[in-house]
Specification:
single chain; alpha/beta; eight-stranded mixed beta sheet; globular
């Protein structure tokens, strides 16, 4: 096929979190001088990593005028087992600390406009998005959560056995066996504190982040008439259909244009 269009380069980036640890990631900026409206684009997994790569989705947001920052928070692979395993029994804490430290660094260096910040992500990135909005209301202008873990207990109940095994390893037990962790680190426990406009995208046949637990969260927001927009598609965790993926990016761009 045709070669891809030219994109803006990924810049390797490092900063310190509140514990003095070095956190690494990448940011991509539009042409011109900042500060820019900025998307903290959080990867899924959580055992995954953002690398310097061609990403049409990232480039689309940059084309729209956003700086896009990708933080390889504690829990990411590629930085050793201690970094990867930092989330075991402590989900929804270290990731948020590292992403927020990235925000502070981008604001301090003049890249990010603090009044036009977006937190966004898919899967575990969607989980971090919902946790961020629920525990740091007012910090961001809007949120975009794709196929998120929204109600951890219900999500576990509806998962396949192999994914339940992964969750037990990550949580340190079943949700019922770690009730304090679920009260502190399940997004639905913080849903009533969310203040920012939110877009949720979800697959109706998702076995990794099942739809029922997403709708539990949606119902709570709708009950208080929170500014919420929804987009559903008929496949699973990922569409794998190019036209559908393009539609989804268009939905996100339209939402950001109106809210940010």
């Amino acid at each position: 096929g045709d070669p891809p269009p030219a994109g803006r380069p990924f810049q390797s980036w490092a900063f310190r979190n509140e514990h003095g640890q070095r956190v690494h990631g990448f940011h991509v900026t539009p042409e011109g001088q900042g500060p820019f409206p900025t998307m903290m684009f959080v990867h899924g997994g959580p055992t995954w990593i953002d690398v310097d790569r061609w990403s049409p989705e990232v480039q689309a947001y940059v084309d729209a005028g956003f700086a896009v920052a990708m933080v390889n928070y504690r829990g990411s692979i590629g930085y050793g087992s201690e970094w990867r395993d930092a989330l075991i029994g402590d989900i929804g804490g270290p990731e948020l600390e590292d992403v927020l430290a990235g925000v502070h660094d981008l604001v301090a260096t003049g890249i990010a406009d603090p009044s036009r910040l977006v937190v966004a992500g898919w899967s575990w990135g969607g989980y971090v998005t919902l946790m961020m909005l629920g525990t740091h209301p007012g910090r961001f202008k809007a949120g975009v959560a794709g196929v998120p873990v929204a109600d951890y207990v219900a999500s576990y109940e509806d998962m396949s056995p192999i994914l339940q095994a992964y969750d037990r390893a990550l949580l340190g037990g079943t949700p019922a066996e770690v009730p304090d962790l679920m009260r502190r680190r399940s997004p639905i426990e913080h849903v009533d504190a969310v203040t920012e406009p939110l877009l949720i995208l979800a697959g109706r046949n998702d076995s990794r982040c099942p739809i029922r637990q997403v709708m539990n969260y949606v119902d709570r927001l709708q009950a208080r008439e929170h500014p919420l927009e929804l987009y559903f598609y008929d496949t699973g965790h990922v569409s794998f259909v190019l036209d559908e993926e393009i539609r989804q990016v268009g939905v996100v761009l339209d939402f950001l244009e109106r809210t940010v």
